[in-house]
Structures are given as C-alpha cells and as structure tokens.
Amino acid sequence: MSAHPRLSLNQATVKHASLLDALDATREAGIGAIGLWREPVAEVGLEKACALVTDSGLRVSSLCRGGFFTAPPGPARAAALHDNRRAIEETAALAAAGAPGSAPVLVLVAGGLPDGDRDLPGARERARDAIGDLAGDAAAAGVVLAVEPMHPVFAADRGVVSTLGQALDLAEQFPAAAVGVVVDTYHVWWDPDLPAQVARAGRGGRIASYQVADWVTPLGPDVLTSRGLPGEGHVDLPAVSALVERAGFGGDVEVEVFDRALWEDDPRAVAVRTAAAFAVAAGVRVRA
Amino acid sequence: MSAHPRLSLNQATVKHASLLDALDATREAGIGAIGLWREPVAEVGLEKACALVTDSGLRVSSLCRGGFFTAPPGPARAAALHDNRRAIEETAALAAAGAPGSAPVLVLVAGGLPDGDRDLPGARERARDAIGDLAGDAAAAGVVLAVEPMHPVFAADRGVVSTLGQALDLAEQFPAAAVGVVVDTYHVWWDPDLPAQVARAGRGGRIASYQVADWVTPLGPDVLTSRGLPGEGHVDLPAVSALVERAGFGGDVEVEVFDRALWEDDPRAVAVRTAAAFAVAAGVRVRA
After folding, report:
1. Per the database record, which ranges form the Xylose isomerase-like TIM barrel domain (chains A, B) (predicted)?
2. Are A186 and A217 in contact (CB under 8 A)?
C-alpha cells in the first residue's frame, strides 16, 4: 500500500496508540512520515524512541509540543522554559533518528490566560518573551520553534496566539532558522487575512509546518475534539494547500485530527482512512 | 431601583420572556433601555409592540436581527432581502416608539456557508452584495445597518464576517449613516487587532452598537450558549469599554448573554442580576 508521498500522520490522530503501534500503523498504511508527540515518546524514553523511529524507516515531520509559557515570572515560568529546553533536545534527537527528509520542528502552543488573569496582551507579551528566551537554544540545536496560532475559540484556555499574522509578528523578531510558524487549517481557515499572511510567511521562510484538519459542524460537546479528516467539513482545503504551496512550502503535510471517534478506532484503520481522505481531499500536490 | 444609566438589556438575555414581560423586567430593574428581538415583537405584532414600547418609557437601543443573506442568487436570497426590508421598517417603527435617545439600529448577522458550500470568500462577497442591496432602504428609513462580526467559531454555520476589521472593510463601502458595525465583546475580545480596529471604527463614525458579554470556560456543550454576564469570564471588559469610549461611542450599552441557565431563570431576577453585574464589571462610564 502506498499513500500520498508528502503525507505525515500526526500522532494526535491516533492518540491512544503507543509509539510503536503508531509507527507500525503509519508504515503499514504506506505513509512515509509521522508527526510525534512527547507523551508517547516519554513512555518508552528518548533513546528507545529514537531507535524505534530509525527502525521504522519513517521521516519525522515535527514534535508536538512545547510552549505553555504564559505564566508570569516565577517557578511556573522557569519550569516551562526548562521543559521546553528538553523538548528542543528531543526534537533534534528524533529528527536525527528519522529517515532523510525529517524536519527538526518543535510545535509550540503558547498556552492560555493564567488563572484569574484577564490581561490578554500581557500573556501574549510573555509568550513572546519566552520564545526569545528559547530561540538561542533552538538555533544551537538546529531546531525550528514553530509557533502555532490557535483558533480564537481557545484564546482563553489554551493558546493566546490567535492568528497567523500575530504568530508572524512574533516569529519575525527572531531568525527564521530558529523561529517559524505552523499553518493548521483547523485553526486558521476562517481568517479573512489568510492569503496575505500565508504569502508573508512564505516570503520570510517561516512556514515550518503545514497541518490539515477539517472544521466539522455541528460542533460536538467538546470543541477541542470536534475536528474531521480532510473532506469531512467546511474547509476548502485545496484552496489553503494552494496558498501554502505557492508560498514555497514543500515539506511533509501532517494530518492532525483530534476526534474521539478516531481515537477509539484501531490505529491501523485510522491510518488507512487518513491516507485515503488526504489523497482525495487535501489538495496537496505530490511534488511541491 | 436604578441601574447604570447607559445599560440596555438585550432581550436575548431573557430569551423566553414575552415582549411585555421583558419590558416590565427591564423597567422594574431600573434599566432605561432595551435591545429588542424580532421574534417576540412578531408574537404580538408590530403595532402592538410599538404601543407596549411607548408605554414602557424605555429607550430602544437596537433590533436583532437581520442578515442571513449568504445564499446564492435565487429564491432564498430574494426571500432574505425581502425579510431584511421588513426588519428595516420594524427597526424604524420601534425606535420611533421608544423614549428619546432610542437608536434606529438593525443588527445584522451575515449567516454561514450554504449547505455543502466551502467557498468562504464567495459567501463573504454575497454578504457584502446583500448589504449593498439594502443600504439604500436603510438610509431612506433612517436606519443604520449594524454589521456584527461573529466569533470565528461561528464562521461555518452562523456568521461569515469574523473580525471587526472585516466588518469595517464591508461597512466602509457605504455611507456611515446607513451601515455601521457592532462591537460585541464576546465575539471580538480575542482579536490582537482590536484596539486599532475599534479606533478605526470610531474615526469613521461606524460604531452603531456596543454589546457586552463575557467569555466563560470551560465552554459548555453548546458554544452558542456558553456566555457569561459581565465579570463571569476572561474578558477584560473595562479595557474594551475604554477603547469603545475613546472611539467616541456614547450610546446605550447592551448586555446580550446567550446562556441556558439565565433563560431558565425568572426574567425579573435576570434583569436585576444583569444590572448588578454591569455596574461592577463592564467598566462603562456613566457619561461617555
């Protein structure tokens, strides 16, 4: 079986699979790349995870995720920065363990407002400062910090970086080799400024990751897990993919779908469904 | 009892009350103005509704709502435009029936993507065209069409106008006397560009309505009805109110909260709670 050559299965789509099961499901579905998550990597330990990745023959397209660094100065912020430095090391190691074409990209989610705090501009400033604190470590490790704008529905409790333009305002304060952005269709599809901002990201060499997931209605009881495979929802994925390719991104394209029904299914079946949905509906060219 | 002199109770906050009950609850809570909805007005008929409004002694701050005009050319679009023309007449009549200081403002929600349609830019164009078709009617009736940007969580199924900047791009194609915008904190609080866009709206005389509701987490099972009274959530309402006032808006400020728990409560109790929450948490000056 052979899937689209640029498809990468993000592990969040098969959330409950172990690292080994996720690697096997990806490979057996003919998919050439995987987007890893830190938790299943930690379950087996970094060294063993790297060995498993090498054995799989898969490319690694990113590691999810760092960030969550909107806390004010103090122990919580220091702990977050420490943890992000470890994530940078893990990203470098896992990308080195992956097949040629792997990408040393660490996806960053800023985090939400601290408890009881209503100062959104302040939290956004602290996210910027944290990235500034980490950019040197990333550059030294050859890792790109990929700032992921999150859908505004998550601005309070998950990610205070809400638009691609805002992510770029932030990333552009640092070298492109160290700080880029994620374009995730689920998070940015609604943005009237998307074409201009994707083009801007391309001009600056800032697109570190392109992820596709669809926006499905009616939203389920938990918005976080109300996503769909490509083609299941309202997003004009070929239009967004064309923007991203015109902007010069030619890397692996991750399918990252938080959906409880997928999580309860067999990871192998999910990988096969993902490959089929991606081929039909994502509008990604075989060669960028 | 006397509430904040610029508070208006939007009828959606007491959704299940009849027009008469909503007017009574508003007045008895010492609130001087009300934002009306078309459905409870239609229940008694426009003529009687106007009489009830006059009897109440309340100002009318807006009528909700027109719009829902993203259908492609055909009978559905024609019906939507016809219905909006009726809404314009109702707005003029109800504002005339209200106490001095009433505002002939018709709140417009664009509507979502038509079934099976993924062309978001196309739907946005059609919303613009529909406003163009209605602007002359509004001007002739002395009514302001107030385009309401909706939170991006509703872009697919409710409102394709997603940011204040986008609403202004649209409104500014028409005279300010006919087309303005709504600033609703629930919908726009997350926007990193909010200060600049509120200032722009003020410079152009485009702020036709200011509505306050809070963003509460965790979101309930239905995002639409997961709002809170001022002070219950994450929005820095005094900061947004200061922006709106600096932009020159001095009118009545509506509290519009879609929340099932409020809907199940006694409208009189809800009006009293609203007045208390507004006075404490909205950050609106007594005189703009």
Report:
1. 23-269
2. no
Cβ contact, residue pair A162, B217, below 8 Å: no
Backbone angles phi, psi at A183, to 5 degrees: -105, 110
Q: Who's near A186: CB < 8 A, 6+ residues apart?
A: A151, A211, A212, A213, A214, A215, A227, A235, A256
**Residues 6 or more apart in contact with residue A142 via CB below 8 angstroms:** A92, A104
Nearest CA of chain B to the CA of A249: how many Å?
23
Distance separating alpha carbons of residues A242 and A237, to the nearest angstrom = 8
Q: Which residues pair with A228 in a beta bridge?
A: A214
**Stated length of chain A:** 288
CATH code, domain with A127: 3.20.20.150
Task: Name the helix (H) or strand (E) containing A61.
Answer: strand A59-67
The pLDDT score that the predictor gives to residue B50 is 98
Query: pLDDT of B33-69, one tens digit each?
Result: 999 999 999 999 999 999 999 999 999 999 999 999 9
Confidence of residue A254 (pLDDT cuts 50, 70, 90): very high
For residues A94 and A60, the answer to whether their CB atoms sit within 8 Å is: yes
CA dihedral A3, A38, A153, A220 (to 10 degrees): 60
**Is A51 a member of any domain?**
yes
**Is there a domain that residue B2 lies in?**
no
Is the Cβ–Cβ distance between B125 and B72 less than 8 Å? no
**Both structure tokens of A125:** 């400033």
Checking if the pLDDT of B87 tops 90, the result is yes
Residues in chain A with CB shorter than 8 Å from the CB of B157 are 217-218, 234
Between chains, do A156 and B233 touch, taking CB under 8 Å as contact? Answer: yes
B90-101 residue pLDDT tens: 999 999 999 999
Among B118, B128, B166, the residue to mutate for chain A (most A Cβ within 10 A): B118
Q: Categorize the per-residue pLDDT at A288 as very low, low, confident or very high, splitting at 50, 70 and 90.
A: low
Cross-chain CB nearest to B163 (options A113, A119, A192): A192
Specify the pLDDT at position B288: 64
Tell me the Ramachandran region of residue A3: left when phi exceeds 0, alpha when psi lies from -120 to 50, beta otherwise: beta
- The answer to whether the CB atoms of A157 and B236 lie below 8 A apart is no
In a domain, A287, yes or no: no
Q: Give B166-219 pLDDT, tens digit per residue.
A: 999 999 999 999 999 999 999 999 999 999 999 999 999 999 999 999 999 988
In a domain, A26, yes or no: yes
Q: Between B164-171 and B194-203, two packed helices, what is the crossing angle to 10 degrees?
A: 20
Q: What is the predicted pLDDT for the residue at B76?
A: 96
* Neighbour-count burial of B175, counting CB atoms closer than 10 A to its CB (0-12 exposed, 13-18 middle, 19+ buried): middle
Q: Which domain holds residue B125?
A: 7-281
The number of folded domains in chain A is 1
